[in-house]
Specification:
21 helices, Growth Hormone, Chain: A, about 75% helix, mainly alpha
Length: about 550
Amino acid sequence: MTGVAIDAGTPNSGRKPAMDPAQIWNMSFGFLGIQIGFDLQNGNVSRIFQTLGAEVNELAILWIAAPMTGLIIQPIVGHLSDNTWGKFGRRRPYFLIGAILASLALFIMPNSPTLWVAAGMLWIMDASLNITMEPFRAFVGDNLPDRQRTRGYAMQSFFIGVGAVIAGALPWVMTNWMGLSNVAPAGEIPETVQWAFYIGGAALFAAVCWTVFKTKEYSPEELAGFEAARHEALGVDPVDTTDTRRSAGQFQTGGLVWIVIGAAFAALVLLGRGDPKPALLGDIEIAQELYVLAGLIAAFGVIQLVAGLLRKGGRDENGFMEVVNDLFAMPKTMRQLAVVQFFSWFAMFSMWIYGTPAVAEYHFASPDPVTQGYQDAADWWSLLGSVRNGVAAAAALAFIVVAAKMDRCRLHALNLTIGAAGFAAMILIRDPALLWVPMVAVGIAWASIVSLPYAILAGSVPARKMGIYMGIFNIFIVVPQLIAATLLGFLLTTFFDGAPIYAMAISAVSFVLAAVATFFVTDGTTAMIERQQAKLAEAS
């Protein structure tokens, strides 16, 4: 089910009015700047780290700062924005604050004097971008009726593509059109990268300000009225919109299970490092990364256990514990989509972390970052990102038409399969001039990842908690990044002799798993109607 025409409200119907194309454009325009920031980060941070002395096998663990900030910040910002209302509305204050901080971080990052300063700036930059980005997802859900949500998220995806094209092209343009040098002495960041970040910071701030000052928001009371009218039109009981309440016992049992799994994993790593040391676990750096992963698993269980204890004591209705409750009691559709998102984003982070060193070594035969060949490879990879994202921008507009005629879940599975073929082709194609071909396939998948899951999800969560659920949903972007940062170096070193090109093989497999998981997703609005029908059947 791709949408419901009954949601096409008018100002006097009680249902949420449709928005015209100009309003949807203004509402989504800020994502242009956000994506310029994210793509400058994703396309150049590994390059900056290597320039400042990082080894290839250290890149993944250095990236761990970014997902850690997202894991903490996104649900908190979502919860806060759900409960904010003032002169600038609910979401827009967070757009503006995050844009200011992210722009400053973009100015500072390419001037990092040492590797650890750069790693710290990645932490700050990613946190600021997350403060800005997270409420944008809820913003579309707040403002658009069901039948326009695919269009709204597709428009966001369009601006994501355009922003990424600009960010990807900037270093290449600085070198080939502006005549700046893309090579610098050892330990110094090339001026092409510096100017790309300066321009990106200014563009981010300007684009977000456009959305802040050119759009309006519905008040919480108006949103509650629209939600009630929507449920009435669907024939659904307003108090039974999601299956999000779980018992204290379920929380406690689940928490204990995750704690045991984390402890068992850590014990296996410890035992594996005895004599004789197996190849997989004998390396102390690999073992440390696996300990981090075990600790994250156990921490997940501890939070869930505490949530259960507080729920049992009746102290879970407000503040932070409300966020925890929502995290562990997601709607059915959201739980299903979480699996899809996990494998989708694991694939993308594998590409972002290892794309530059993979192309430099495998296609340009220049793995040393101080050489001209490596820097040319880095510029070419950045430009290929523009190809990928230009395709994504065009594909996003096509989804508006296709999704009206085809089931959104099946369409998403098809797009992910195309993306998997693109990643596999990166290994088969040795001529760097032909790498634009797999980038077209990955671009189609990328457009789908940043639009269709959000359109499916928006109809399955209550309007009053749109922010927190979008924030929690984005955790399933962060968790695969954490696992990628923890495990990718280990996997490549252990199974592929450290060759970064095989990160693309891992990405291909991950996309296939995401495509399979998509077939088990129930569209949000469909799930709501099915629950109501089951409830009526039981009553009769």
